[in-house]
Amino acid sequence: MLRSAGYTPLDWLLVGLSAALPLATRLQLDTTLLVALALVASLASLLVRQWSERILLEWSLSFGLALYLGGFMLYYVPLRDFPSLWPGFWVMALLVLSWVCDSSAFFVGRAIGRTPLAPAISPKKSVEGAAAGLVAPAIVGLVAATLLHLNPLLGAGYGLVIALGTIVGDLVESLLKRQTGVKDSGVLIPGHGGLLDRMDSLLLCAPLAVLYLSAVRNFWL
């Protein structure tokens, strides 16, 4: 995406830090130290990098997007380890609720969507679709929690949080594509807009889910 926009990113920084942050979290290493080392090493590399008028901009984009990808993905590690009915329950619930949000927003928006949600970023998304995307996961979460003998408010709140992360995450990825002037984020998954299109909605969900569960654990868990 960055290359399509005419930038020359620091590949080793963007790809390496994105992958290293979740791995370091899984291995219980200090991610703050890892980010600091990447910061120092990447700045030092600019001193020997071929000169460009946009060298600092390209460094900033590489570093920022690495934090965007790896920094959000690392939250799936503590989310998986959160106390639950069975291992990975909250992650699986996140995936299902995010899918419910996407599907309900798509079908309702297509059927009755009239009011643009963010026309400058994603013209096809509507307020009506977003509203359905918020309500449907909350209802599914409430029903599922009741069936699993959990607090219904816990399930409804979790569904609402995941829906919010899904909608905002999708808009952020649309903004990235708009800024770089590309239709698809990549060619790794032909016909699906690229890998980032498949995971954009999930990036923001994990940190929001961890924050939500941490906030309510003393009341509903």
Average predicted confidence as pLDDT: 89
Radius of gyration computed on alpha carbons: 19 Å
Tally the beta strands.
2
First and last CA, distance: 42 Å
Order of strands in the sheet with most strands: 1-2
Q: What is shown here, in short?
A:
The protein is mainly alpha-helical.
Structure write-up:
With 221 residues, this protein is mostly helical. It has 2 domains: 1-74; 77-221, no CATH class. The protein is built from 9 helices and 2 strands, in the order αααααββαααα. It has helices at 11-26, 31-46, 55-73, 76-80, 89-112, 127-147, 152-180, 195-203, 205-220; strands spanning 116-118, 122-126. It has a two-stranded antiparallel sheet with strand order 1-2. α2 packs antiparallel against α3 (55-73), α5 crosses α7 (152-180) and α7 packs across α8. The radius of gyration is 19 Å and the shape is flat.
Please name the defining characteristics of this protein:
2 domains; flat; 221 residues; 9 helices; 2 strands; mainly alpha; two-stranded antiparallel ribbon
Topology overview:
Blueprint: H1 11-26, H2 31-46, H3 55-73, H4 76-80, H5 89-112, E1 116-118, E2 122-126, H6 127-147, H7 152-180, H8 195-203, H9 205-220
Antiparallel strand pairs: 1-2
Helix pairs in contact: 1-2, 1-3, 2-3, 5-6, 5-7, 6-7, 7-8, 7-9
